[in-house]
Amino acid sequence: MNNISSQFKQIEHYWQHLAGLLSPAHSEVDYQRQVVMLDFLIDEIGENEQHPLVGLLENLGLLVHNYETQHYPIPTTSAVEVLSFLMEQHHLTQGDLREIGTQGVVSEILNGKRKLNLRQIRLLSQRFHVSPEVFM
Description:
Distance between the termini: 55 Å
């Protein structure tokens, strides 16, 4: 019991210095401070999984992830939205996507009348150099 009390006193002393870093961010300033520290730790630790601060890196990463999930949610997009965006960015027409089907097939996909199949997803991911998951 005395050992636990002694450890608690040590933790209490250091916690004053670490609380702002290891507590959930309650403001953009808190979040930015954590991101700066996380970037520093990533640069410092690199691939060294034996580094003594790996646990700090992991915990700080979770705190940053939780803040970002709550405050900067990634909007979900449909396969059609992704395909339309990529076509626009690459200045492509429906006729330019012959590898996935005729212009009529591409039109049906873009209008939501037909879903992309696995072969089409694979071909589109190769063409645009993106993960197949963006079309699923």
